[in-house]
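Why should sequence recovery work at all? Because a backbone constrains its sequence more than one might expect. Tight turns favour small or flexible residues, buried strands favour hydrophobic ones, and helices have their own preferences. The token representation captures these environments compactly. In the example below, the structure is given first.
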């Protein structure tokens, strides 16, 4: 086993603070809504499913439910594969890239988008992706087949997407090992204060309050939640073990980038994320 050359938790902090939020700016952007409405897709859930699963091709509900892990299958099946009769995966991907362009320009401003620092961050993030692996990584591997955009801000967004899905695919493996089903994973994550609020789990993932309540009951039986729905010490340890295993499975791209490069990417990306959040990239009630 190769010993890490990175400071403890450096990759995790960079992913949470600088990489995943940059990718995720598109999810709540009016630009993605506008782009898909022009293609005849107006349902918010359908838009979400289309732009995130399009890299897989015109697949059905089963493949997407498996790859996404924590969406209600009935919700996915309501839209797929029928959605592909309205918009092809290729058109969905093109619409998403146009939305990413508009979103980043609006949130960061032209000066930042055209800056040497953003181009540097794009180069660092793309270098990190050279360390990613395809095996067992369904969403990452599908996105890795897509062409790399030329413009720096879109290369940065593309790289953030690859790194996001690479860690996400590994996280699903860690969830299976930890024995957390989709709802238990969501409810326990919300209890950390870092996951989505129940409002959004119901609106985007398709779950009912009764589903969330049942998952909370199972977690209480496991000793992970207390009577008020807060994480117990055992629950907090479970979530930390989960993140540690995810870190291990996702170490390769950041080891490839190296400590100096990772620190610089975290610095630059974190700066861009602060700009985006300040400009209103995410709903104020998103977190649990």
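From this structural description, the recovered sequence reads:
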């Amino acid at each position: 086993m190769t010993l890490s050359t990175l400071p403890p938790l450096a990759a995790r902090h960079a992913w949470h603070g600088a990489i995943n939020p940059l990718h995720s700016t598109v999810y709540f952007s009016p630009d993605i809504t506008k782009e898909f409405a022009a293609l005849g897709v107006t349902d918010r859930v359908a838009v979400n499913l289309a732009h995130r699963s399009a890299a897989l091709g015109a697949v059905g509900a089963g493949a997407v439910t498996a790859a996404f892990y924590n969406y209600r299958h009935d919700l996915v099946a309501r839209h797929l594969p029928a959605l592909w009769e309205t918009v092809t995966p290729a058109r969905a991907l093109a619409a998403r890239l146009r939305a990413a362009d508009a979103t980043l320009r609006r949130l960061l401003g032209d000066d930042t988008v055209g800056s040497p620092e953003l181009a540097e961050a794009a180069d660092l993030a793309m270098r990190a992706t050279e360390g990613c692996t395809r095996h067992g990584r369904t969403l990452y591997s599908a996105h890795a087949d897509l062409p790399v955009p030329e413009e720096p801000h879109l290369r940065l967004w593309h790289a953030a997407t690859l790194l996001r899905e690479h860690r996400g695919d590994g996280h699903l493996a860690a969830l299976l090992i930890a024995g957390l089903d989709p709802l238990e994973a969501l409810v326990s994550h919300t209890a950390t204060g870092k996951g989505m609020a129940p409002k959004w789990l119901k609106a985007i993932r398709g779950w009912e309050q009764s589903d969330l309540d049942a998952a909370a009951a199972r977690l209480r039986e496991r000793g992970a939640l207390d009577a008020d729905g807060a994480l117990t010490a055992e629950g907090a340890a479970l979530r930390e073990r989960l993140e540690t295993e995810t870190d291990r499975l996702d170490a390769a791209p950041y080891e490839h980038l190296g400590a100096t490069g990772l620190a610089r990417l975290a610095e630059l990306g974190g700066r861009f994320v602060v700009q985006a959040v300040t400009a209103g990239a995410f709903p104020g009630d998103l977190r649990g």
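A few observations help interpret the result. Residues 179 and 185 are 9 Å apart (CA to CA).
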